[in-house]
């Protein structure tokens, strides 16, 4: 299979950046701070350094303390949250006060807020216009997914003497909205391009996604690359059943940076072989499986016991899957396995529902009844109950049927019910991918050399 | 339906606590910081105050700076991560150095580490014994889910003069392991009970979970309670289709604290009515639905289009669901809707797959073919493609069939493909619950008064 490499690149300085997330709902444990993780990954992709993340509640004095501390050690301070319409939303006020600047209305934001309420026929309160306030002298970042604009402020020399750090050539504060869909879009479309334009070195980064190998195995195979030779960094990110590798390099221009990355990506692909399923940032494992099915004009059916629909659900994550996805069966009970998939009563009695023989029949029945070329079937003991000495919690069988050629594998997963089910789902997709690749490499041996 | 109230209670001081999560993998955006959210929710349940969360990398100087700052403003500093066997794991070293204490081997931990490697027949490296080190004079918290023990240190007067804050009667540092399953268990079983024993006021808390009402609607209905009358706090947590309310009160003893909570929980239940599905901390919406099915001896079948198995998967989250769960059909294509569920070709042609008529037939067919009492069917446009002016992205139909009595509802959800599918799944469970309750309240009118 040929895998194209996609690059994320742009001109940007190697900045030291730190994140301050504002919101009492994070301190109460109401929500998980996904914004901090999103921003952190974005910094890594741009080659920024980051040493701290802070969360603080909706309290002006504490927000100011945090910003002051961050400015003492970082070039760019990114705040998220607290730009909304309520009296609790005071991030802009606190930052403006710290800098001694005033807040002014942004007319584009005022217009968008009026338009929003008019369209919905709802009454706008005076509070809603608070969202249109921005810090004087700051660059306004329009919010295309919500009402509160973002602001990016370059600190003046005087401000840096008072609350910043003169060791840096420049210092910036960036205010982003709290809702993830607003923050992510504003970062990607407005903030990141601007920060990149601040010139300096050019950073390019590329993603290599591999499946079916453990994190430690990948770390061992790529040990020298991960430890780094200097100008190209390789950072592994573990996911269930997958390892994602971000390759980043700096260069004199985009072409130069990309040229430094290319041989490293090639080297990773050669060492990890077929387990690399994509080098595209946005491509998920399920998407690569669906593409593989489409490319080979195969239709698929799922037959699930312990995963209860999770494999089908991941395939349906892929928009436009209807071309290949025939049907999905959730057969949690023995009766359903018999009635819907034609599993034999005798086989269930002799080997039990969690057995190689039963998943094999499930895979056969699923493809037969739904008239599909391919099927995947799983049966396992997800726990907490149901385990025995012979068949402990975590024992899972997965069968893949490609045009009648059936592969059955036994797995032992650890963790709680949800973790076992997640692992089962991931490894079902991984086995599915491996079986399709093997089936076609047998049919068309030699052709793969082109890749 | 009768809902029992479960209490979490214990004796504990109202402490000011702050969290420092150590780990470069968080700063790289490799993982989402769920530990901080878990601990935050636990602090809230115990009535602790918390004003800051920090994330710092595996760097001794920076860790020490963060701990010093935290000790200047908090009574209890909880650190998570960096207790592992590698050279990067330096949290204990940094804290010991800051306090001027040494590290000593904990013999229980040494024994457990030896045992772990022996059982697996693996060779233990000297590095692994680093995990058995604890801070001298600290209380050791055994790790029942892993190898690195936790440590809880009371600062001496001298230490507090040097790096702490004498305004507090006492100051503590708690070190917890980074892996969530180790951290959570150690907190619940070892750390929280000890902190509670430090005496002072008694805190009790209780959880009320409601579904099918928006966050703003709940906030409005409970406005006076959420704003608070003083000694009982009500904190709302929004989830997809749900609002969870944590009710917390302090009292002279456990009985007193519980007595303060009881009338508030009762008041919330009376104002939110049937939308309250549980007052048990651990009960999920799918679990309450499964219990409702079991209580009424009903079996269920799912028929899913855009959710692709997510509803079945949530039901299968519930251990022991096999008593009630007959089967699940994932019928994403029109053909599958016809073949597996008997939806009429004419209906599909006339009204389209996303229509009230089609989900009705899906619900009828699912119950008929799987011979179940109840069925739930969904069909919708999850996007990003497939929307039209008449049928925009986010339009979803859900049908529930209780013994032949069919309810169909139309929904308009916002957000991306995943968000629309998540909302659809949640509202399918909510409609299912509502229809079962209504069905039985019709049959046994008057009986509900006992609740």
Overview of this protein structure:
2 copies of one chain form a homodimer. Chain A is of the alpha/beta class and 451 residues long. The first copy, chain A, has helices spanning 24-27, 34-46, 60-71, 91-99, 107-119, 126-130, 157-163, 180-197, 215-221, 223-227, 254-272, 285-295, 310-316, 334-341, 345-351, 356-370, 417-443, and strands at 8-11, 17-22, 52-56, 76-80, 103-105, 133-135, 139-141, 150-154, 172-176, 202-211, 232-239, 242-251, 276-278, 300-304, 325-330, 374-380, 395-402, 405-412. Helices cover 41% and strands 23% of the residues of chain A. The first copy, chain A, has a 6-stranded mixed sheet with strand order 3-2-4-9-8-7, sandwiched between helices. In chain A, helix 3 packs across helix 4. Chain A is elongated. Chains A and B meet through helix 2, strand 3, helix 3, strand 11 and helix 13 of A and helix 2, strand 3, helix 3, strand 11 and helix 13 of B.
